[in-house]
Amino acid sequence: MSKPRTTFLSQEEIEAIHNASLRVLEKTGIKVMSETALDVLKKGGAKVDYGTNHATLPRQLVEEALEMAPKTITYGARNPKYDFVLNKQEPHFCPTGDPPFILDWETGQRRYSTAEDVANCAVIADYLDHVQLTWVMLTPTEVPAPMQHLVGICTCLRNTEKHVEDEALSARSAQYQVEIATAIVGDSKRLRERPIYSAVQCPFSPLTYDKGITEGAIELGKAGIPVVLYPLPLGGMTGPATPAGTMVIANADVLGGLVIQELASPGAPVVYSAGAGTVNFQNGERIRSPEGPLMQLGLGQLARYYGLPDERPVFYGASKLLSRQSDHYRVEALLTQMSIEPVPDIVLGLGGLEGTTSPEAMVIDNEIVDYALRFAQGIEVNDETLAVDVIDKAGPGGHYLGERHTLKHFRERWMPRLDVDRLETWEKEGIKSLGELAHEKVKEILATHKPTPLPEDVDREICHILKKAQEKA
After folding, report:
1. What is each CA distance from 299 to 124, 177, 252, 275, 453, in whole angstroms?
2. Model-level pTM greater than 0.85?
């Protein structure tokens, strides 16, 4: 079968970025604000200066960490039918928003999100057929700040049977999250075998590891929870002005975090990610530019070079509202990613606009994924699909609708699911925009789709954990 595939960076270029990253880690080093992590590094063979929170990582140490890291990772779910494996064979799609703001699905206005919004977005993610996992997309802002992350992940786990991704901002937060997930699956052994959630932990570019986030990641690694290392360097600000230089920073940030994880818990599951981007030099704000996707593609190739599972943002664009502009950005971005090797294990961004989360965008993005997956299948060319005999039978000026060959193959053709009407029907039914059609679908999902609730005893245990966490917050 002919598939639309190409490559980006050459093997020599990949190895050049890799070697540059190792030189940076060994010579420039990293700043680690956690004494726990510094102890781990020192014991593993790194040169550590506790007074300046500085460590340098010998090349051999990085290579050993890469050897220890698993090359495939099982992502479990509350419902085992939604389990999947990150093995670099196919993409899995994840809604991610931009907390704490939501584009209200009833009023269309941007506002702060609530626990109800977290629940609604989890229900929509649970319904959508191309969503395999979901981020905790929003923030329950009515909850006191110290409890927002825990309430968010609990709300999400209660309202979807699929895998959930979040973050842990401290060792204590990570421990509570592990307790909650263990209560759901039954025991720590099952959680290690089928982790029902994972956590995105972001090194602070350039080359800096925050105390809370780093110690949270260490705790998660001990429990077998996959940790997504996701630095966010910006070329010209927190990375060099050149894309290649920013990629070196991003890659070094990931590798530094990987060393900490593997030395703390050999074999800890780690997912390679990076949100390398660019800025507007007039105001310092992040912008959408061609260099951003190019860096994402190159970093994806680095993940494949290391054999690590990878997670990449794709759908994010500059559009603030649902529009043809945002649809164009999203189709363009996804088709590019699906056409260039390697395809990421996890594709991020369904439902996210610039600075806002949109339930309607989740629905539209699911449709875009459906389109892109068909595009990625390519075209099969053989005697049956060339259809020479069918063409001969129909003849010049003929028609194929009634042919047996058409009856056999018509279901293979992609068809839109949101906007399928002809112009006349569309006008008769009120000239609804794609956003309005998605809005109606959101209403339908929230009215009819009911994920299986947690057992009562499990829910009580989670409430007990939340109460304990609140008392100690």
Report:
1. 30, 29, 11, 9, 39
2. yes
